[in-house]
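ugh ok fine here u go
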Amino acid sequence: MKKFYLLTMLFLFAFFTNAQIKVQGVPRNDIKPSSTQSQAKTTTTTIVNFSDIQYWVGTGTNEAAFAVQWNDSKNPDALVWGFRWNGTATGEDMMKAIAKADHRFFTLLYQGTQFGTAIGGFGFDLNGVNTNALYKNGNVTYPYYPVDGIVNTSAYDFDAFTAADVADHWSSGWTTNGYWSYWIKDPTDPDFGYSGAGATSRVLQNGSWDVWNYNPNFSDFPISSTMTPVSPYVSATDFTNGYFLVNEEWFGHTNGSVNFIDSNGNVNYRVYSNVNNNQAFGATTQYGTIYGDKFYFISKQAADGGDTQYTPGGKLVVANAHTMQKIAGFNNIGGGDGRSFVGVNEHKGYIGASNGIYTFDIDNLQVGSLIPTTGGGSQYSGQIGNMIRTSQYVFAVKQSTGILVINPNTDTVVATIAGAFHSIVQAKDGSIWAVQDQKVVNINPTTFAKTEYAIPTTKYIGAWGAWNAGSFTASSQQNALYWINSINSFSSGTQIVKFDVTNKTFNENFAAIPGQTGTYKQIPYGAALRVNPVTDELILNTTESGYGAHFQNNWIHTFNNSGTLINTKKLNDYYWFPAMTVFPDNTLPSVSTTFPSQANANGMTSIDLKNVVSDGDNLSAAIVKSIKSNSNPSVLIAEINANDELVLTPLATGTVSIVISFNSNGKIVEKTLVINATNSTLATAEVKKLEFSIYPNPVTDILYIKTQEKVLQVSIYDVSGKLINTQFNNGQINVSGLPKGMYILRASTDKAVYQQKLIKN
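structure:
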């Protein structure tokens, strides 16, 4: 009897030893015998042929199929990709290549085990909404984001992970939820067979199949006979229809990001990171703007050292505004912290920093040098704030100094408007407006004269201490300005203020910020307020007062131009710290049909260009007009003056073709104008010689201009019509560097345009 008992025990031991299965090479005694039997079976071969596969990853002459079956009742369930290679490749190589290429697909891996890489989870973005991310043990504060399609862990803790988007495919497990079984088929195999080994040791053959089949709750599912070929990855987001929300992100944890709110109201999170394999911006991204189909993101610092999820992009990141694909990134922008950016022309931009303004070469993507006299002061007493480009100048706010007026042709400061300003905008009618603590200031765009209007009862909150772009904003559809009030110089109020530029009237209760009941109220954050240039709707972003976790609550409110709240959406809980809203730039400037194709110039002739061009999604008054080419400068001088007039000055009789460029926010259209010129114009200076004169003439070094009018611009041309850069200062021009010869001097004043022959000795 004892002998029989011993034999029985040995038989059972041998049975269970043989019945023990391996999951990716790991011996498992906890799998039920029914599953053990199931693993020994083959399944019905799938009906998908290689010719049916749509998304192929890799290159080479060998081909294999890769399928994932979630068994989660979400359709489509079983998905299949193709993989091409030369040489030797493993199942792990195939899986990683597909995860890196297809941004919808992601994995949870434990790499470096004695059995190779353990695959604990697969996910797939079914709806194109939200970001691929995982939560561990329900901790939504610290999500795990895939890099190259992979989230790594260092233990068999796969059961602890859940997907951030519950609407997507996601299954993971090892000991509790279930596990991923691995089925393979090579060309000579009649059907699929269960692989006890892992993907690391699986060597692919030309014509191989790998199928990952999830066993939820350790239940068995046969391999599906119907698999859905995955379509090639194309970004599902149309970045032309909606608006962007640039985020500071959580300092010490994540670098800056940008979300996109589409026309259907869906919030697409971290769209730049999704497109660029989890790259991000720098630390505390505070400013963004689109210019000429490029998106410029400015961060205060180059990187957040506490961010282990994203690759930092630097203080300046340049991306394609239509696709979000990265173009360039810069850690250094002249040694200062990043503040702002403005496009100057199609070749050049200006970077605002804590230590001055630097040029940026758009063509060659290079940070240039400091613009003279824009620096000075400490990081928090001389920093540059917002900048705007008008048709003639760049206006830049400098802390503790005022507003710097820069000639974009020479990159020189031509005037400084003194005052303690916070921000600056341009209204629909072209007027320039700056804001102080309790007044708005109108600045003449050509003479720079100031007119102040006191805000009746409230203040504008400044943001120089921890700089942000501020809520001061202008409508492109109405001649109106908006901002958020404050109860003092440090605390935001609860009202949106509207200023009627035409009538110079204030409405300090235009619209109320929602969420003002309860202990913790909604408060604006960052720039907080911007106006949609197409719909004229106001976009307001708020967070929750208090501290700590309260800042995980963030809202976006939309008001129509009557001040009525028409939509509210709440962002996913996270420390986004939204910085500012940016709107796409989709349309080209449009030149009116009234603009002539031919004109006569029988003497000095001017054509007003202010109202001949418009832009549907940008400020028409800010469109920059310039002369691109002149077919015969010895016959005609053509230039655009400070009043946006095309001034034609014949030098001889003949026909000239000029091309005028209209630049609206970096988008350009051109028009050709044929001029029939007759030389009878130089008498203009003689007629006005009592009002305007230059001396000495001939001149050797210093030329003086005498006039009772305010000189706005001085240009010197050589006899070929080429413009010579000049420095005009306090009525003097240093011409000592000019070669000897004859020149033509053109001077624009606030009353007229003058022209004189000039001889250099």
